[in-house]
Each structure stands twice: as C-alpha cells, then as structure tokens.
Design brief:
With 269 residues, this protein is mainly alpha-helical. Helix content is 59%, strand content 4%. The chain has 12 helices and 4 strands, in the order αααααββαααααβααβ. The strands form 2 sheets. Strands 1-2 form a two-stranded antiparallel sheet. The chain has a two-stranded antiparallel ribbon with strand order 3-4. Helix 1 crosses helix 3 and helix 5 packs antiparallel against helix 6. The longest helix is centred in the last third of the chain and has 27 residues. It is elongated, with a radius of gyration of 25 Å.
Length: 269
Amino acid sequence: MMNTVPPFPEGSVEGLAKVLGECGSGSDISRVLADRGLEDNSGQSTKWRRLYWIFLQAQKEHRCANRILDFIQPFLIPARFVGRNEQFEEHRVELNAILAFSGLEYGKDGQFRSCKAANTLDEAEQRVSTIRQKFQGRPMHSEVSKYCRKELMQDNYFHAVFEATKGLAERIREISGVDADGAQLIDQVFSVDRPILAINTLQTETERSEHKGFAALLKGCFAAVRNPLAHQPKILWSGEDDAADYLTLVSLLHRKLDNCVHTGLGRAS
C-alpha cells in the first residue's frame, strides 16, 4: 500500500490526463473508473477532459493524489499490452516525465516507486529513457530506428545493435537485389571493377579509394559488431555507451547508402 501522496499540481493532472487519454478507449476508461469507484460527473466527451475533471475532483475530495494512482495502475497495467510492449513503454515514458516532478516513477512491473523529485523540465526528461535522451547529439538515421526502435524503447541495447546491423545488411540486399550476406554481399555489391552500387563516380584514384574504404567499413561492421553479437552471451555486453557508438556508425553507413547509385550491373529490387 502506497503512503499518502500529496496532490499533484493542476498542470501535472492535465498532463497525466492527456497521456492516459491515449492509452485506451472511452469504454476502457469507463470500465476502470467504475471498478475503482470514481464517479464521472464531468459531462465531458473527450477522453482526456473526462479524466482531467475526475482527477481534480478526486484530489479535492480526498486531499491527495492516491486516487489518480489507483486509476493508473489497472488502466496502464502491463497485462493489457501483451504483444504491444512498444506502446506500453511509450506511454510509461511519457507518464514518468510528468510524475518525476512529484518524486514518483511508474515501473515496467506496473508498480509506483518513490524517486528524487525533479525541479526542472530538463531534469525530468533526463530521467526518462528515450532514444532522444540516450543518444542526444548523435544523428540517428531513420533506417536504424526502423529496425531497432522497440529494443531501444526497452533499453535493450544488446539486441538494438544486433537488429540495427542486421537491418543494414537487409537494406543493402533491398537496394542491390543481391541475395547474399556479410563479406560475400559486400564484395559482390561494392566491387570496384563491376560494382552494383557505387558511392561516387569511381573516376579517380581518390574516388576508388573512398569506395573501397566504404566497403571495408561495411565488412568491418558485420565482422566486428554483428557477428560477435550473434555468438556473445548478452551478460558480457558492455552497455549503452558502446551501443551509442555502434548505432552512430550504422547511421553513418546508412547515410552513405542514401547517396549510392545503382550502376545497372545488377538487378535493382
């Protein structure tokens, strides 16, 4: 049983209502309200406005925020999001950015915990594990998040890097039409003499050297990052700092692929 929680500021109540309004249908809200004994006399039809009014009334009546938390737990219970873990994490992250100002955190297990209260928006956002926060200042290509967004939202850096590097190979296959993998894929697609994809015109020695270097980077990414992850126990993974560096590298390689030209020597997908 959680101790008495002081009332939330009105701005926090509004923020919570807006986040929760996106977490389920109107009937879902009505069901949980009835189950938790919260009366809806708001007269509002918009989901978040209903919750905003109900939460404010509950705080005023009970002089604490406990009834709001009592609604959140069964409404945002992890079991409701089986098969939709990414959605659950997105909602939980948004919720925690608001709760941080009141010294609370909603865990992945569906339980509230006390934490040091945030005093500024920057401080609150720093508590939240999002892609933007973990990799702030590092450009992340859309093709990276396409393949590993779910893993990043779960702070699963080991598998995020693994999926991102697999996605890099898949994109090369899609662009080139070559059904191969690893070094064989790169040697066939980025051959200097008969390239299927070229990163420049290959007219000068400098351009040919750049093309060879790019191919070497791709092979190195698979050999030094992807392949070890396929065999290395997760427990030995070094963590988010290396993940940020690896994902930055994969982003760079994707940006180079953006500018590659199909030479017509192979089948475009």
